[in-house]
Amino acid sequence: MSLTLKQRFSDLFRLDTDIDRPGTVAAIRESVAFQGTNVWSLVFAIFVASIGLNLNSPAVIIGAMLISPLLGPITGAGLALAIYDIPLLRRALANLALMTGVSLAASTLYFWLSPLNTITSEILSRTTPTFYDVLIASLGGGALMVSLSRKNRSSNILAGVAIATALMPPLCSAGYGLANHDLAVFAGAFYLYLINSVFLGLVTYIFSKALHLRTPSTGEQADRKVDRRRHVWLTGLAVLVFITPSVFVAYDVVKQSSWRANLTHFEEANLTFPNTQVLSTKITGTDPERTLEIALVGAPLSADLQAHLKQLLPQYHLSGLKLKFVQNGLTDVDMTTEKVKPAAAAAALVPEVTREVLVLFPALANIAWGDMTGQDPGQAAPSVLPTAFARWSTEVPDTEHERLAAFLRLRLNLAQLHVVHEVLPKSP
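Request: output the structure for the sequence above.
Response:
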């Protein structure tokens, strides 16, 4: 009974059943070609991916992943190494290099001509490859080879692998970096493309060896020593060039995520006051000189309470963080009225400026004026600045914030005017 159960359990994970070895090799060989259908598929995929990245549309980007023919030469190179087919290896690598070059050139041209040059979250998400991307590419490559080697190949698995191991989006993101002269974006996105390509090919190589894929003319009398040496070199190269850097990036991502989680816990537990409202919190500076700027309205926080909050930071593993409190007693002003409490030096101009701002910045909902007290870390005494508190009805770019601040300073003749920005919550 136990033997039967053991046999059934081992049968669950067998890969040597229902294998179509000649059909698998033929299918991979055919996918290596870069002509006809594959050329047009690549062209469509390039521009669909670039438009999706430009418009920040995940659905469009997924469509480009499904169209892209880049998987073909990558799996072809992995198979060629496994079966010692040097002509196939040369053809696969040449076509992959050609596809990569065409994709980079076309996406660079698109982003250079596009009127939308703001970097989107979809582009940014493909500029910091980590060890998790190595795992995804490896697992996706395994799923691809298991599916390709069956007599009844699953199109669902092929589509899933194309989406999970994205090749076209990071390549087009690299094109965005070239078009905008952003070396960091180009390097990060192209490195992600290389990680996906290399580990898809490496897993194809491993599975091709494990499944004993070969053709009648190749791989029958392979030298075992050469085979082992090649396997060691491939594995060592993958670990050294691709896995090691991605592990460090993944560690930094996990570290930053943990730090932000600690910061959220600190804010939720300690930044609620009976007579004072927290308008906004903002992190300025970079590690290890980071500062949490807290904008407050209502009763000013006492020096003792500020000191107490600073003493709590080590309990949340935020020892290196500095706190900066920006406090004021602001009176809200509707943009359609002239009831204001501005800084005294610009009081006479405020009604007129209020009307002008309403025309120039239609996204503004209301504004407030007052004298704000702020204290920088290490500052002996607080300072008082004339302040405008701008409430926006919707999200606007940072450049719009800067334009408003510049206009107010120039129009009110206040070189030290402080502007606080907030987006009003949407009505349910």
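The first strand starts at residue 276 and ends at 284.
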